[in-house]
Inverse folding.
């Protein structure tokens, strides 16, 4: 079938598209930042001594990993104003929803980061007389970071993909703006094709970087530990990731 | 803040929820039926194919991994018909979009599972004079399968989560049903609470199966 492609309207609305892109990236980075902090708290709760906190953290992680983000987003959008009495906009609702969703996955990154460092490393560090703080700072954290830096790069990719559903609220991010352009110009083919390519264009470099870091940074012990924890570290498909941990 | 929770209207039409849950499972099953064979083909091409084919598969997999599913679903529903003159029903568009993306993940999963089989196993099979096909069938695939099956269930969980996006092209699955009920009853919080619980039960079951199989088939190294 012959179709006359016409990308003119995109050229004319570059500013509008760019504005959407800025909103997308802003939302993704804020969600990741908050998610990383909340995720740290959740991970510490899960590894802590208090059973109540461990259960709470586990419930949080299981709930957010086992329900679709769209449902979480819509629930928060309607429930936040009623439960808190504060009128929240699309941005706030999206930010809260994506931060919590990201936190659930981030906590697993921290947890597997800690678990990827063999116990012998702690023991060796303490046997040469290091204090607990020194052990953590000089021996454990550097090894954890080797695994966590690529993992968080992957998480960033997921969070950017995740922000696409904020367009349902409507939050004025890239997908939402492109949808409006597609409707105004009766050019869904060009608009959505461009959108799909655009996401890949922005995110594939990140994916390649993550893959490179995974290969270069991991310690031998972490490589050995991978196959066992593959299922635990699988992320989202639609929103998250699946890590090819076993190779 | 005192909010009067009222679930009566929301759960009144429980048959409708059952239908919607059925549709969710249906689109997931259809997507997996597309994804599994295609993923196997992609993995085989990626591992054993000639170089240009390998690059094409890498390109496909990377593109799919970085695509937001929402955009793929919208693309197949609105853009694909214009390009090829074939109208896809919401069900078909969602199946194709989810299936094609899942195939990429499944291909990576199979490849990783096969690569994870210890090199010594390949060498040992060679050393006792096995042919490549015999080696793959008797030595490599059974061990790879033990790694792949648990993760396959995690993948199923992700597919179910992804199917919620089919609501945007008006496919009558759970999330779409929720939006209808919420509009009819003016009870959005109760509606989305109910639908979240339904999803949780379905997806949590798939996740538990994943960890169950991981424990049962798992490798202790």
């Amino acid at each position: 079938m012959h179709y006359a492609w016409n990308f003119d309207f995109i050229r004319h609305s570059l500013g509008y598209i760019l504005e959407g892109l800025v909103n997308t990236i802003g939302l993704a980075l804020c969600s990741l930042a908050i998610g990383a902090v909340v995720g740290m708290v959740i991970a510490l709760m899960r590894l802590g001594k208090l059973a109540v906190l461990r259960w709470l953290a586990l419930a949080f992680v299981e709930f957010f990993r086992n329900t679709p983000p769209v449902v979480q987003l819509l629930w928060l959008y309607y429930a936040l104003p009623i439960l808190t009495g504060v009128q929240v906009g699309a941005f706030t609702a999206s930010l809260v929803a994506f931060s919590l969703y990201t936190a659930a996955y981030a906590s697993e990154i921290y947890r597997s980061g800690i678990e990827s460092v063999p116990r012998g490393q702690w023991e060796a560090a303490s046997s040469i007389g290091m204090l607990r703080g020194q052990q953590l700072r000089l021996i454990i954290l550097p090894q954890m970071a080797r695994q966590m830096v690529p993992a968080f790069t992957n998480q960033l990719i997921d969070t950017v993909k995740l922000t696409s559903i904020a367009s349902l609220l409507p939050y004025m991010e890239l997908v939402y703006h492109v949808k409006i352009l597609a409707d105004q110009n009766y050019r869904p083919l060009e608009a959505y094709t461009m959108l799909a390519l655009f996401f890949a264009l922005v995110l594939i470099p990140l994916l390649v970087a993550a893959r490179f870091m995974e290969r270069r940074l991991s310690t031998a012990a972490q490589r050995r530990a991978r196959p066992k924890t593959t299922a635990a570290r699988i992320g989202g498909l639609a929103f998250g990731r699946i890590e090819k941990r076993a190779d | 803040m005192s909010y009067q929770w009222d679930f009566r209207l929301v759960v009144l039409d429980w048959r409708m929820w059952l239908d919607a849950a059925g549709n969710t499972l249906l689109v997931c099953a259809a997507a997996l039926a597309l994804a599994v064979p295609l993923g196997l083909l992609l993995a085989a091409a990626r591992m054993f194919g000639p170089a240009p084919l390998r690059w094409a598969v890498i390109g496909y997999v990377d593109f799919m991994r970085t695509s937001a599913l929402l955009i793929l679903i919208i693309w197949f529903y609105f853009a694909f018909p214009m390009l090829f003159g074939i109208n896809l029903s919401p069900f078909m568009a969602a199946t194709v979009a989810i299936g094609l993306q899942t195939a990429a993940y499944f291909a990576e999963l199979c490849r990783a599972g096969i690569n994870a089989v210890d090199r010594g196993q390949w060498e040992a099979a060679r050393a006792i004079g096995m042919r490549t096909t015999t080696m793959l069938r008797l030595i490599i695939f059974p061990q790879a399968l033990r790694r792949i099956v648990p993760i396959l269930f995690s993948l199923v969980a992700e597919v179910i989560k992804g199917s919620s996006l089919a609501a945007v092209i008006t496919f009558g699955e759970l999330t779409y049903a929720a939006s209808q009920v919420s509009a009819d009853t003016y009870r959005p919080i109760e509606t989305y609470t109910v639908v979240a619980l339904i999803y949780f039960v379905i997806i949590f079951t798939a996740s538990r199966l994943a960890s169950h199989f991981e424990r049962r088939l798992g490798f202790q190294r």
Residues 227-247 of chain A have pLDDT under 50 and may be disordered. The domain at 12-233 of chain A is CATH 1.10.3720.10 (MetI-like fold).
